[in-house]
Amino acid sequence: MVGGLQVHEELKDQWRAIAVEHGFELFGVVDAAELAKVPFPPNRCLDTPQGFLADARSVIVLGMHIWDPLQNAVVTSVLPDGRIPFDDVPGSQYYNMYYEIVEARAHRFAETVREAGFKTAVTHFVHAKVAAHLAGLGWIGKQTLVINPTLGPHVRWGCVVTDAVLPYDKPFTEDLCGDCELCIKSCPVGAIAPGYAQGVEPGKKVDFWKCIVPQEMLAEPSQGWVKHAAHYSPRGSHECLICLDACPVGREEHERRVKEYSTKPAG
């Protein structure tokens, strides 16, 4: 048994290194059964790991640094009257740049898991933010984003559900928010309720219909969306990043990288 655990620990380390090659510098593993116990907000198309893979045992959480606003670009069709943004609406069109980037690369990574003889299902429709927290990769901030100690909230997440049993990581426990409420105060439409996200009923911390992000799918979006979401075309914009950018955690490293990536390399 000890030998088997050691093999799995080595396999996990190998997969972590391969994830880095695909652009995921953040890697963690959570027990699929534990993640399935966590309630999630309605109307998000979310499901338990077992909803994607019946014999799911582990969820590999992959985090990628998102460093340019265009990586948050979205293109959407207009929803029919009475339908809820991000719900399952047949015929609607929704393209999100960071989803496409993260999932495409997660599929490439998942080939490694399948080649080792395991089943996989790649998705961002498990409760990815909670999965990242349970995998030890960050704290759920007061704006409900995952805050990584190095990169702050400038990370997007993908998950690979698998029947492989890997050593599970421990949940992230350090409070990275403290008394800070800059994200709450920054929201121009007052969508974020005061206080911590922990202990709040899923879907109640951020007022869904006030938040600027869901407005991108409506025929008549709010004036907050019109004013604060950058637009590229009649149906193209990028998601509101105001509460994300307000967070001071990880800002120094994030801005250092943006400058590095935007500067001609020496030599």
Notes on the structure:
With 267 residues, the protein is of the alpha+beta class. The protein has one domain (2-261). The chain has eight helices and ten strands. It has a four-stranded antiparallel β-sheet, with helices on both faces. The longest helix is centred in the N-terminal third of the chain and has 20 residues, at 2-21. The radius of gyration is 19 Å and the shape is globular.
Provide keyphrases for this structure.
267 residues, alpha+beta, 8 helices, 29% helix, disordered N terminus
Give the helix/strand layout.
Blueprint lengths: L1 H20 L4 E6 H5 L21 E8 L7 E4 L17 E3 H19 L4 E4 L4 H7 L4 E2 L5 E2 L7 E8 L19 H5 L36 H6 L2 E3 L2 E3 L3 H5 L4 H11 L6
Antiparallel strand pairs: 1-2, 2-8, 3-4, 3-10, 5-8, 6-7, 9-10
Q: Number of helical runs?
A: 8
Shape: globular
| Mean pLDDT across residues | 93
DSSP, total strands: 10
Short note summarizing the structure:
The protein has 267 residues and is an alpha+beta fold.
